[in-house]
Amino acid sequence: MTPGLEHRSAGQTGQLALDTGHRYLVRRHVIAAGDGLASMAHLHRDETWVIVQGTARVTMGGRAQLVSEGQSLVVPAATGHRLENPGHIPLIMIAVLTGDYLGEDDQMMADLTPNLS
């Protein structure tokens, strides 16, 4: 277990705040192989994710894509998203959160089911 790592679910999945300012927060997320983060959206912040180890399966707007080590993507505010580690090694992601409110209560569960109508 890594000191200072906040464990949010099974295995070694967790997060650690690396830096913070008035309108930004930088976190390191470690996602155990086969684990993932809940589907959610944030109303007041954008998130920029950089994958530094492993491969992530990211679902946004009902579409899934693989994001590999060294790649990044932006999750705009109010966009439903989910992050999973389909690999066999821990996934490490650096997340930069920016916006006018960065509190933990700025999240809501998101339905990522594609609209087929």
Give a concise summary.
The protein is 0% helix and 50% strand. The protein has 117 residues and is mostly beta strands.
Could you please describe the fold and organization of this structure?
With 117 residues, this protein is mainly beta. It has one domain: Jelly Rolls, CATH 2.60.120. Helices cover 0% and strands 50% of the residues. The chain is built from no helices and eleven strands. The strands form three sheets. The chain has a six-stranded antiparallel beta sheet, with no helix packed on it. It has a three-stranded antiparallel beta sheet with strand order 7-6-9, with no helix packed on it. The chain has a two-stranded antiparallel ribbon with strand order 4-11. It is globular. Residues 1-11 have low confidence and may be disordered.
**Name given to the CATH homologous superfamily:** Jelly Rolls
Provide the CATH topology: Jelly Rolls
- How large is the count of helical segments? 0
Kindly state the mean pLDDT as a whole number?
Answer: 84
Biggest β-sheet: strands ordered side by side in the sheet: 1-2-3-10-5-8
Shape: globular
- Radius of gyration, Cα only, in angstroms? 14 Å
Largest sheet: 6 strands, antiparallel
Strand content: over 45%
Task: State the end-to-end distance.
Answer: 46 Å
Please identify, by name, the CATH architecture: Sandwich
Q: What order do the helices and strands follow?
A: EEEEEEEEEEE
Task: Bin the helical content.
Answer: under 10%
Alpha-beta content class:
mainly beta
Poorly predicted residue ranges: 1-11
CATH structural class: Mainly Beta
Please tell me the total number of domains.
1
Number of strands: 11
